[in-house]
């Protein structure tokens, strides 16, 4: 309760997260098993908004916890949600499965997409408000007969001492691959255990989808993968960091730094030593909040000032441009392995947050390895660069194009790669 000056007691606005603790607290130790094995599952409510009265999903939701591996290859638990469509699959072959890697929602455990889908909108203290901004894609896909498994990501949502391994290439890919494996094990679904699978993701989710395609041949060779759709993927984090400075989404730097420490705890002391007191608050608070609060608290701030009034006491270019941080960031880049199946990459040419170069370089790298790649370039002109319009809007503008590409892969339609017509470096 909050006591106000006139003595009237009013309840503090907050969301009750305690109801999630039992499910999202992994057993310790983990039960014996292999990557992708289900640990637990339960039915879950699916709503677009808290009352559940403004429309309904044409699907049944099941919350899942499953075994996967972290950045160091160690067994961990991860969570997500499986969506079983009410409608039949109208295309060819058995019902397809889309393994969906969400974009960034913040890295507090309350921000996990699988938690948001039974709330519609999450609100706790201050501006800790968030909603499932990708639900329009999910709702459309299940209405068209696709089964979907949404992977929260390693460390995201689970009630553990650490936190999400945000933007870590290895665990992002294994977490998505194992989510697909777990969905195939659920009893009572309409999935064929050997049925087709495709990956989908935007920004950090695009990195996860690309990593899953890259790691599939060695990590999950039994999966029948037909393709991966990547929307402005975080293919090179080093390119993103200078663009984020002073932008609406500068809080993403806090997510990245927390992700490095959560994946590689041995880097903690080094990274903390480069932060000012404001920077310490920035990084620590970033680990507890969701996207809207990140924008409210940190939007349009600068990372560095010579008088140390920014977040870093060294120039970020120096920190991120030298080892060990430089090597850690480079290890998160996509493009070093040939993906399994065809890939579709969509990106805006004037993206002022996650630059187009990241996507075009990735397409060239994969093409050089003999992959089947189509790069779609959105030409929406630059607008309000520091608020990320050219990052988010093209995702929705080109959403139907991405969905059609995935549909064609499940229906066996020939691909239209454009490796020969990619922009020059």
Automatic annotation (TrEMBL):
Coiled coil: none annotated. InterPro entries: AB_hydrolase_fold, Lipase_secreted. This is Lipase family protein. It comes from Candidatus Mycolicibacterium alkanivorans.
């Amino acid at each position: 309760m909050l006591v106000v000056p006139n003595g009237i007691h009013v309840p503090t606005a907050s969301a009750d997260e305690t109801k999630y603790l039992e499910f999202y607290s992994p057993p310790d130790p983990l039960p014996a098993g292999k990557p992708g094995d289900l640990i637990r599952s339960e039915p879950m409510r699916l709503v677009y908004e808290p009352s559940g009265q403004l429309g309904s999903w044409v699907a049944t939701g099941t919350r899942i916890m499953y075994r996967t591996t972290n950045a160091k290859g160690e067994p961990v638990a991860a969570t997500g949600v499986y969506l079983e469509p009410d409608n039949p699959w109208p295309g060819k072959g058995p019902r397809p499965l889309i393994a969906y890697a969400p974009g960034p929602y913040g890295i507090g455990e309350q921000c996990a997409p699988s938690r948001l889908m039974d709330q519609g909108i999450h609100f706790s203290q201050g501006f800790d408000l968030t909603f499932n901004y990708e639900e329009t894609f999910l709702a459309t896909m299940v209405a068209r007969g696709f089964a979907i498994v949404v992977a929260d990501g390693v460390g995201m949502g689970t009630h553990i001492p650490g936190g999400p391994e945000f933007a870590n290439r290895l665990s992002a890919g294994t977490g998505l691959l194992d989510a697909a494996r777990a969905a195939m094990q659920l009893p009572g679904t309409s999935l064929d255990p050997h049925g087709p699978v495709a990956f989908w993701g935007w920004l950090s989710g695009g990195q996860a989808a690309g990593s899953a395609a890259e790691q599939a041949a060695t990590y999950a060779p039994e999966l029948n993968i037909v393709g991966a759709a990547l929307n402005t993927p975080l293919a090179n984090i080093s390119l993103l960091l200078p663009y984020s400075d002073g932008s609406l989404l500068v809080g993403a730097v806090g997510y990245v730094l927390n992700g490095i420490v959560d994946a590689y705890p041995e880097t903690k002391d080094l990274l903390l030593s480069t932060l000012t007191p404001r920077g310490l608050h920035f990084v620590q608070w970033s680990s507890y909040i969701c996207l809207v609060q990140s924008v409210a608290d940190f939007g349009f701030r600068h990372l560095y000032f010579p008088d140390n009034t920014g977040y870093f006491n060294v120039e970020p270019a120096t920190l991120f441009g030298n080892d060990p941080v430089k090597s850690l960031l480079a290890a998160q880049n996509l493009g070093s392995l040939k993906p399994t199946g065809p890939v579709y990459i969509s990106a805006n040419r004037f993206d002022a947050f996650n630059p187009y170069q990241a996507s075009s370089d990735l397409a060239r790298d994969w093409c050089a390895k003999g992959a089947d790649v189509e790069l779609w370039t959105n030409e929406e002109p630059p607008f309000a660069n520091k608020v990320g319009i050219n990052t988010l809007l093209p995702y929705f503008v080109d959403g139907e194009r991405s969905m059609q590409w995935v549909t064609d892969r499940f229906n066996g339609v020939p691909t239209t790669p454009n490796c020969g017509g990619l922009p020059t470096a």
